[in-house]
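Marked as duplicate of an earlier ticket. Keeping the data here for the record.
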Amino acid sequence: MRSSLPIPRFLLHRHRHLQRPLHDKLIQNDSTTASILYKATARRTKASSSAFLNLHSVVPESVRESVKSSFLNEAAKHDSRLWRNDKNQVNGSLDGDVDRPLSTSLLDPLDDLYLTDSPRYFPNLPSHVSTLADPFALAKLELDSLSNSIREDLIGTSHPVLNQAASYFFDKSADSGKKIRPMMVMLLSRALSDSSERNDTASPSLFATPMDWQRPDLPQAQRRLAEISEMIHTASLFHDDVIDGSDLRRGVPSVHMVFGNKMAILAGDYLLARASICLARLRNVHVVECMSTIIEHLVRGEVMQMRGTKEKDSSNERVVYYLRKNFYKTASLMANSCKSAALLGDYPLEYVDAAYRYGKHVGMAFQLVDDVLDFEGSLMSLGKPSLADLKAGLATAPVLFAAEEFPELNPLIERKFKQDGDAERAVDYVNDSRGMERTKELAIVHAELAMDAIMELYPSEHRDSLVQLAKKVVSRTK
């Protein structure tokens, strides 16, 4: 029987043994048949590249969506085989060292994200913490020169448009970011130094003189690490704004609104490439692995956001899924940047672990507060329109918590608030629920865990400033 689709003759001949026409198999979203079609077409490209190039027109949209859905479902799993390599032996390696993680924290089970505890002492601070230790004041001089250093020293390309696009958020006219990530790296670098045996804790510099057992260029390496963290973060903003269709960022037009989608993606890729080169030049394989994991996590988080939760998921499963996505998209960068600062200085493992936990819980708190501000903020305070997440079809923590009180929200979440009036109804449900209150409480609990982690370091002004930073993250209004 002749297929009604314009399928190349070689495919029809290759699959002539099928009981039903290929068309009938395809329209039933048969993933196996789709896989056969893809593989067969790929093999055929050696003789006919046009067949492969025309694949998009050959395969029905229903099959393409089925394949896409299958991939997203697999990639969104926490233990997906796509994100690991289970081989015990690889080419050139007898014991599988090439595939073995150098750091055990890369195997974080992420079982401490959805916490039902109540805040213990907030808005108070842990005992013996100075209320005068201001993280922004201590880091101001270094942060003021950070964007210029990245723009002048690290983003070097002879292509004028690419250079302008990659430097966009490092230019004075658009450089209004909080720079929380490099600030954490810098303050933590000094707090870790203060926790070691030394006598110059009164020095105002964030980068103390290295000790005998540390690398002699540690101050330069620590500053470069802070710059790398900001470059990775900025690259993720370029990509996110294209994916989400966001017109504004930091109160100015997004990069893709100025330079177009293609250039925005290329500029983000270029920033990641430059960050990778700078990372390699730190010449510390543990730090390279740790920071490289961030890039994997950014992709993984974006895939989870694209897929979303399933209709059959319980409210608890939805919240856990959402918080895992938040870790990959936001908290991993902070956690692994802080951890890398400790690794770079060759500090004891207990300090490395404390640094990781501090960054992780500050990152979780930061994103949860962002969720609340999306409802409570304004264009003036946020630098972007409020309710941006809802308009993008995303159900954040306040909505997920509100749905536990108002199940009527669930159909709106499933259809990603696409119908007229969905976003407005969702806002009403959130305002009538404890959704925002519960989100704020969870953010505070994470901030307290961050404070607990950094309190494991030796008392110093810089350690106390990191405690204050955790508090400021959950107290902010923009």
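See parent ticket for discussion. Residues 331 and 363 are 4 Å apart (CA to CA).
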